[in-house]
Amino acid sequence: MHREDDDDSERTERKGVQPFLTSTNLSDMSRVPKRVFAATQKRAASFTVSHPGIPRVSGPRAVSSPSHFRSNTPVIEEPADSGCDDICARVEALTVGASKAGKRGSRVGRGMTSDYGSNPFFKPKLPASLLRQPTTTPIRQQQVDQSPYRPPSTTPRRSTQARFVNRFTNDRCPDFYNERMEAMEREFRTFKEKMETDVREATDYKATIQQLQSRVTELEAIRARLEIVNKGLESELDDTRSCLKSVKMELEMIQQKHTFEVDDVRRRLRNEVEDLESRHRKDTDRMEREKDEAERKIRNELEGRIDKLLKEHNEELAGLRKKLDADTEVERSRRAQEAQKLEDEYASKLRAAALDADVKQREAQLVHGELVNVKSELDRERNLKAGLQAQLTEAATNNLGLDAANKAMKEKINFLESDSQAQSEAFNDLHRRMQDAIEAAERAHDKLRQEETLRRKLFNQVQELKGNIRVMCRVRPTHEAESEPAQITFPDNDTDSKEVSVLGPNKQSATGKDVTAAYSYAFDRVFGPVSQNGEVFEEISQLVQSALDGYNVCIFCYGQTGAGKTYTMSSADGMIPRATAQIWDEAQRLQEKGWRYTMEGSFIEVYNETYNDLLGRSEDLDKKKVEVRHDAAKKQTNLENAVSVTLDGPGRVEEILETASKNRTVAATKANMRSSRSHSVFILKLVGTNDITGERSEGTLNLVDLAGSERLEHSKAEGARLKETQNINKSLSCLGDVINALGSAKEGGHIPYRNSKLTYLLQYSLGGNSKTLMFVMVSPLQAHLQETITSLKFATKVHNTHIGTAKKQTKSS
Ligand SMILES: Nc1ncnc2c1ncn2[C@@H]1O[C@H](COP(=O)(O)OP(=O)(O)OP(=O)(O)O)[C@@H](O)[C@H]1O
């Protein structure tokens, strides 16, 4: 900048000189003979200093001149003037300053930044005093006025004497130079006016410069202040930075410490929960045993007592019966004696009557009439005998009735008189004890109910501590027809197996050696080839239980085709039948605790990004559109145009699986290996209500058999198969994305459920309010090694995801 300014000023200086030269019109002068031009220049040099009041110019002086101008006239030495140099300098400075000012002024005028404005260190070369006093005008006036070339001579010396070429010679100027000098005078006047204008401009410019300088000074002061402030801020910034660094280090230390502590607390809590669980289990068992024992005792006691009472009663009854029989016998003999007596009486009467008849027969003739009377008397007596016999029969009947009444009376008397008090006391005691037993049983039930609630809570706490997404691995056995198994080992097989190690494919190292890397993967549980479905189910049974407790549960089977997904999920003893059987049994058990459950099952297939109903009619497959609707308020998924079967017995699930399998087989004829190329989702909705506590729970169990996970380049698919594979890859990668987003998203963050039909269907069963378990199925064959490693890597990624705490969907009605 400065250099530019310097150059500029230099140039300006040169230019400042230029107007003078231009005004002397060198081009014109070039037309003048050289000799004449030199003389004119000298003349020009001399006229500026010829006025007595103006000091002489002390510039270089020409000493040469053409000799033919020399005359004999004596040379008059013009007086040397000491102020001349000064004046010259002033004029030169004015010229330079004016031209600069003109230039700068014009720049400023055109809206450009002046040099003074931009450069606070700029010092105008022109002295201020010079710029302030425009003294040049009178001087020049005088110069012009006092010019020796003016015709009327005011100075007798000049008017009378011929002009000299210079002061060192006596050469006189010829007269014909006057015209030329006048022209120069005119040019000089023009130049002078220009100079005056320039000087005025320079004055204005100086005022502007002063303003700008003061502004520059102010700005300098501000800049200095700002620099101080800036330095202060920088030092503060440094302090803050160092402070921040130390805080960060402290924070990291605290975080580390906190992580350790949290792990400790978690471990401790887990141990405590496990202790509590086992203690609770023992307590429950003990209480059950005690309850059974108490019930058995009470039952035995009551039975003994009842047996004893019955025995006593039977004995009493036998005594009474014996007594009654004896009494009846006595009464019968008495009655018989009475009847005999009556008969005897009658017989004696009859004999007396016959004697009388004999007497009377003899007297018959005598008393014939008397005989008729006797006959009538006999008839009467016969009637009397019939009457007496009827009376006897009636007496016997009465006797029987009396016997029964007697027996009843005796029983009553016996009951009332003999044991009535003791019996009623025994009954009262029995009743009281029974009431006590019922109350104890009620209390035991209440306690059991509370224990059940506590168990559910503790179990779900354990589940939460274990994390809401769990991953287990299962390696299927090698079939007889298969050869070349891969080298898969289970390092911690003797304990709870949680690790699987796979020997990778052979690779060549940089040095050309054959290298085989071993890959190890850890999961929540690893099942080897010898494991059975029952063993696998044991691990997930508690998760299945959660669905009854009101959670949404999702269990996936992931892996390449033929790795054992369907065997694990839908075979006769697979997870689906076992889970439904457990839910059924548990729902029955919970009935005594007041719970009533309704269970509805659906089976949906996701094939080529469309939903199919596996429980519908096989001819509707790929034709009837199943729609999935979400109720965002209730966080529920509803299926339209899909059959839902009420599970009203444990055998129902077999029917469901059979129908689904039949439909898949029918579909398989349309597109080969349909089951491997589609996802199947068994959905069991469980709604429970508790009449005692007023609780209500809604849970869903989703058991998902995913399509084969082999990659596109491996399947070498084309056409429809290519489309299938693309859809499978898309939906599986969307599932990974959703799990990943659930693991990393903050609450309310976006989860891409809508990116595939599978994740859309499972929207409310994947995520914060649900529990997820993924089985990664592994083929044991060397040929599938690459796919095995890919599957295990995917599963590890899922295993490393932590999804937020699940919430139970329980309502109090
Ligand atoms: N744990 C196991 N024990 C015994 N046999 C098994 C086991 N796992 C799988 N198999 C057998 O391996 C074969 C392939 O299993 P499966 O059909 O379940 O595989 P998949 O992964 O479901 O394949 P796809 O994707 O085609 O449905 C079947 O014959 C099955 O009976």
From TrEMBL:
The keyword Transmembrane helix does not apply. InterPro entries: Kinesin-like_fam, Kinesin_motor_CS, Kinesin_motor_dom, Kinesin_motor_dom_sf, P-loop_NTPase. Residues 1-26, 50-79, 100-159 are annotated as: Disordered. Residues 468-801 form the Kinesin motor domain. It is found in: Cytoplasm, Cytoskeleton. Transmembrane segments: none annotated. Residues 64-74 have a biased composition (Polar residues). One of its GO terms (biological process) is mitotic spindle assembly. GO terms for molecular function: ATP binding; microtubule binding; minus-end-directed microtubule motor activity. Gene3D superfamilies: Kinesin motor domain. This is Kinesin-like protein. Residues 1-10 have a biased composition (Acidic residues). The keyword Protease does not apply. ATP binds at G559, Q560, T561, G562, A563, G564, K565, T566.
